[in-house]
Write a structure and sequence with these properties.
The complex is a heterodimer of chains A (268) and B (262).
Chain A (H helix, E strand, L loop, with lengths): L2 H8 L18 H38 L3 H16 L2 H18 L9 H26 L3 H9 L4 H31 L17 H12 L5 H27 L20
Helix pairs in contact in A: 1-2, 2-3, 2-5, 2-7, 2-8, 2-9, 3-5, 4-5, 5-7, 7-9, 8-9
Chain B lengths: L1 H31 L4 H16 L2 H24 L8 E2 L2 E2 L14 H34 L2 H9 L4 H31 L11 H9 L15 H30 L11
Antiparallel strand pairs in B: 1-2
Helix pairs in contact in B: 1-2, 1-4, 1-7, 2-4, 3-4, 4-6, 5-6, 6-8, 7-8
Classes of the chains: A mainly alpha (268), B mainly alpha (262).
InterPro entries (chain B): ABC_transp_permease_HisMQ, MetI-like, MetI-like_sf
Family (chain B): Belongs to the binding-protein-dependent transport system permease family.
Protein name (chain B): ABC transporter permease
């Protein structure tokens, strides 16, 4: 089988298109590259959807945490504490068994036990909590002068928030938020190792990498391939976030712009 | 009972890994700022690679890689007259004497060995994070201090030992505290390394039991077991947070930094 055939057979294997059986012996380098790359589709899917949805919830939670009324700030604090204080790994397990129980007792939430939906919910809430903390910190460090200037112009309520406070918050939070995004993409590798089963061997990149490592008993090929894919993904994220950062800071003089620093983070 | 012991496993892991990672980190940071070029490259790339790739991949990688590395070294030493290749297709074959742990060893040796590999893996990965923190902290020591030391005629080594190292801890503490929290939250990954830790037991004990197999039949309790684990971790991180805050307050007393207000 030539490499092109392999790509056709396994390129979309992770979403169930193509050859049904995974290769069993005589593993070629091409197969490993193709399958692990195909698994990256899941990582990207989880990462992008959780990031986009989490962004909105994070803003809401950050505002709630900063609000003066305890009815809003208490639940926001609790939400952040629970999701930042416990391991994501345990959260996945807990959520999976919770969804399983829901399915058995009510019968309506069966779609949540599927990794594609259930794990997405967990990742979404998790990234929302981490980003909310970042946005909250940025919200608190919005310069007082800007808010006073907005008051002087007679801006109030929503328009003050929309035109003055929020853009500055975003600008201040952006470098940290970039790291959070990278971090989130790395965290997506946990999905298929924590409770959620890979249905019909449709897994993410790490799932396939560990499949190859198990079968060949040689970790020195699949894991470096995985590492290469992730470094590429990280570079793409940094460049996209860098573009947004440039746009957010476009009114500032060149030297006053805060540069993005590549500080990828750790596990959660 | 084993479930309660497994909490001890986690605590032991933390107790061993934290200092080990600190040593690795210190070595990495010293290497990264060394004046010898290859050593500097080694230190920098150690930090960069480990931080750029999902750590869980490293956990899965190092467990097999370390195991095979040890066996390979023992193989070279113990069986010099072995003529077959070590990698035969999909198998990794070393001579009987080089197996680690020995095939004849009792069960607890296997468990200890698995645990030791896990600790080493954690130390390598977290060492890179610690190296990054310490590297930053060493650079944060005010330059005037180092220059003063040079003016007094101290050598590079003396300056490093007597000026930089004692002072860097305050700068490193926020980062190290953060790392400690992350380390706590990484401990459930032990499960993936094949150690029978709390996640393993929560799954085992929580699974549905029928009267045929145990004295205490119950339904699927895994949800509650994992809820207990979640609460355990929440309490643990919260307590560490409070403790670190106190420590920081104590250490920064009288320092001319933002945290050290008198």
């Amino acid at each position: 089988m030539s490499c092109w055939d392999t790509i056709q057979a396994y390129g979309l294997r992770s979403i169930g298109i193509g050859e049904r059986l995974l290769p069993r012996d005589d593993f070629t380098l091409c197969q490993q590259f193709t399958l692990i790359g195909s698994g990256m589709l899941w990582n990207i899917y989880f990462g992008i959807l959780a990031l986009v949805a989490g962004f909105f919830l994070a803003n809401a939670v950050a505002l709630a945490k900063a609000s003066a009324s305890p009815i809003l700030s208490k639940p926001a604090n609790l939400f952040i504490l629970v999701f930042r204080g416990s391991p994501l790994f345990i959260q996945f397990f807990l959520a999976y068994f919770l969804f399983l129980n829901l399915k058995q007792s009510t019968g309506t939430f069966s779609w949540l036990t599927n990794a594609a939906a259930g794990a997405l919910v967990v990742l979404f809430l998790n990234t929302a909590a981490y980003s909310a903390e970042i946005f909250y910190g940025a919200l608190r460090s919005v310069p007082r002068g800007e808010v006073e200037a907005a008051d002087a112009y007679g801006l109030t309520g929503w328009s003050k928030f929309r035109r003055v406070v929020w853009p500055t918050t975003l600008r201040l939070a952006w470098p940290a938020y970039t790291n959070e995004a990278i971090f989130l993409f790395h965290a997506t590798t946990l999905v298929f190792f924590a409770g959620f089963p890979a249905w019909q061997q449709r897994g993410d990149a790490l799932y396939y990498a560990s499949y190859f490592a198990d079968k060949t008993f040689n970790p020195f090929v699949p894991y470096p391939i995985l590492a290469m894919y992730f470094i590429l993904l990280t570079l793409v994220i940094i460049s996209i976030f860098g573009l947004i950062n440039r746009r957010l800071n476009r009114h500032l003089p060149q030297e006053a712009r805060r540069r993005l620093r590549f500080r990828p983070q750790i596990i959660r | 009972m084993a479930f309660y012991w497994s909490f001890g496993t986690v605590l032991i892991l933390l107790a061993i890994t934290a200092p080990a990672a600190l040593i690795f980190g210190f070595g990495g940071a010293v290497a990264a700022r060394s004046s010898v070029l290859p050593l500097r490259w080694f230190g920098r790339s150690y930090i960069a690679i480990v931080r750029g790739v999902p750590d869980i991949a490293f956990f899965l990688f190092f467990v097999i890689a370390l195991d095979q590395g040890f066996e390979w070294i023992r193989h070279q030493v113990l069986c010099p007259d072995w003529d077959q290749p070590i990698r035969q297709g999909n198998d990794f074959v070393v001579c009987q004497a080089a197996k680690l742990p020995l095939g004849s060893a009792p069960q607890w040796v296997h468990e200890i060995y698995g645990f030791a590999i896990a600790v080493l893996t954690f130390a390598i990965v977290f060492g890179a994070f610690a190296a990054n923190v310490l590297f930053g902290a060493m650079r944060a020591v005010p330059k005037a201090q180092v220059e003063t030391a040079a003016a007094y005629g101290m050598t590079r080594r003396q300056t490093f030992r007597q000026i930089v190292v004692p002072q860097m801890w305050v700068y490193a503490l926020p980062g190290l505290g953060n790392l400690w929290m992350v380390l706590i939250k990484a401990t459930p990954l032990l499960f993936l390394l094949g150690v029978e830790d709390i996640v393993y037991w929560a799954r085992e004990l929580g699974g549905a039991k029928t009267p045929r197999f145990t004295d205490y039949p119950h339904g699927d309790w895994r949800l509650w077991y994992f809820l207990a684990l979640l609460v355990f971790y929440l309490a643990f991180t919260r307590v560490s947070e409070i403790f670190l805050e106190r420590l920081m307050k104590r250490l920064t007393r009288g320092q001319a930094t933002m945290g050290g207000t008198v």
